[in-house]
Amino acid sequence: MATYLDFENRIATIQQDAESAKAKGDSHAVEILQKELEKEVQKTFGSLNDYQKLQLARHPDRPYALDYIRLILEESYEIHGDRTFRDDPAIICYLGKIDGKKAIVIGEQKGRGTKNKLKRNFGMPNPEGYRKALRAVKLAEKFDIPVLMLIDTPGAYPGLGAEERGQSEAIARNLFELSSIKVPLVSVVIGEGGSGGALAIGVADRLAMMRYSVFSVISPEGCSAILWNDPTKVEQATKALKITPNDLLEHKLVDDVLDEPLIGAHRDKAAAAQIVKSYFLKSVKEIRELSLDQMLQQRYEKLVGVGAFSE
Question: What pTM did the predictor assign?
């Protein structure tokens, strides 16, 4: 059953009325309701505030990494384990083909339902997850295969075991290693990009965000608790953090914003997957036109340009 957010209630009502009219065979009513639905979608989603976009980024029906992989990757084969400690289900790595061309897709997977959420640790990777991702990228480099990385995590897991096994070192190692990998790297924030947990698979030649995604150094809840000692100021914190795609694009922290369906990727997963697929193929084609030295130099300049300012 579909889940609707508070500001989607009117849309839910119209859709339910349309389904009832369709069941009764009233084609005239269906046509009228469909037009009304289109107007309501334009009205509702054309004026979303930052907090509403955050809610959409966390929407329980939003497609996760595994949904995208199943929709765009052919002949897929999962890569398991970091060859050091264990296999971390919060990060998934697949080898396969996109439009007949070899690709490796790495994603952070949140999981649906209590059982899967616990299995995937709510999309919060342990250090072995980041080491598995790096192993997959090294494999891609060995066989000259481009990599697509799908970011969707509230953050790296902050548990005691994760810290004991070197969480910060694993993230830092990925930042260091990915900066010089000799194959095209494309990252897309498909939902929630939280702190270092997102950055660990966010170093790329192209970094894009879906229309209703967020990318932040801290969650708005954490920010409101630290700055104002008041967890109720989440909306204010969301606005102050500038974590939505257009703000980040304006500050040149991301390269592109992908126009997922206006009503949201959670209502049209196939269309959202096609948008990610097209962006990946287009980006790889552009990157392949560069020499290896040019590719690495551009990636380096992009990284050192983050946070640059003038007085």
Answer: 0.92
